[in-house]
Design brief:
mainly alpha; about 0% strand
Amino acid sequence: MRQAVGEALELSNSSITIVVVIGVIAAAALLLSWTLRQGVLKKSDGTDKMREIASAVQEGASAYLNRQFRTLALFVVVVFALLFLLPGDTGVRLGRSVFFLIGAFCSASIGYMGMWLAVRANVRVAAAAREANGRANGAKIAFRTGGAVGMGVVGQGLLGAVAVVFLFKSNAPAVLEGFGFGAALLAMFMRVGGGIFTKAADVGADLVGKVENHIPEDDPRNAATIADNVGDNVGDCAGMAADLFESYAVTLVAALILGKVAFGEHGLIFPLIITAIGAVTAAIGIYIT
């Protein structure tokens, strides 16, 4: 039965129970993400020279993201205030603004986690490739790294949506707009900014290293090569992770809004059930691979 926009909606006890269970699944996904992260970090990080080069890449990637986040914080504060000025119920406006901040924070934290773990997994994959059965061991470390970030995306996105539905019920769609917008705003800046940095460093390394000084490509003696690797991590890891979270969150938000309008209570709960099943399936897939 179609639910009119703005019509009051009360969740039944069974629906509330389902939402709580889904929240537990989301928390379990975050716990799995942390477990996979710890498993990756326990692996050998190679020789002293490998650690030296990896440390330079880690330092550069952290410096870039810290500077970017300081700039983005200004935009986030401005948009937070603008969202609160929109017409509507005070509770909804406050919830929308607060969950905009939460969505932006989740997107930023996933992006930072993706970069932070990637620059540490890189050297561990390389070290594993030097050992016996290196191809399989290296691939497993790389896959578990992706699994850690992926489960972090699922856990944070699903937990945020569950919190909105549980707290705001019939007003959840209006508040979810802020959550999705926050995720999208940070992801856009991280994706575009990281991509520009990546390409600039790539071209600089090629021109200065290969063309002018005849240094082989990806030689660590070329400082621009380190910048190139930093760019690969902030663009293809941090930017991609934030972009993935944005896609997941916005898709879930859209499904919840449309579901509530079209099918009322059941339409608000069903997308959460589907995504929770996806989280469980993904966790099983990570462990059997």
